[in-house]
Amino acid sequence: MSIKRYGAEGGVGTGGQRLPFSRAVEAGGWLKVSGQTPMTNGEVVEGGIIEQSRLAFENCFAIAREAGYGVEDVVHVTVVLTDARYFQSFNKVFAEIFQDNPPARICSVQDLVVDCKVEVDLTCYRADRA
To answer: What is the DSSP letter of 93?
Structure first.
């Protein structure tokens, strides 16, 4: 089994800092997408939890698509919210994205190292790539 790294050269974080991890790693049909925040070009995009959640997911799915995976391949999502009051609004975005095929999930409330409301990561699987 080989391991393929996407974006191993490192992305760009806040203030233009180089990030020392891969955007995603694929092995044995599994794709792990690193946590994504509502950022564009290394800067957090302001907005409420709904806008920030949508952008965090868009960033995850852009990486997944680059690797050949889609929303239908998502088997698990990890979510970090910075405030428990965001839970219901986040769930609306989650339901909108996954509709009748929701993946497994964990959601916690924690501080983030970036000044935003949400971070999301994905685990995807495709048997044809195992």
So the answer is: H
In this predicted structure, which of 14-18, 32-36, 93-97 has the lowest mean pLDDT? Answer: 14-18
Helices and strands, number each (H, E), in the chain: 2, 8
pLDDT for 10 equals 66
Q: Which CATH number fits domain 3-129: 3.10.20.740, 3.40.50.11890, 3.30.1330.40, 3.10.100.10?
A: 3.30.1330.40
Does the pTM exceed 0.90? yes
Q: What backbone phi and psi angles, to 5 degrees, belong to 107?
A: -135, 130
119: tokens are 């971070």
Q: How far apart are CA 29 and CA 78, in angstroms?
A: 19
Among candidates 2, 23, 1, which has minimal Cα distance to 13? 23
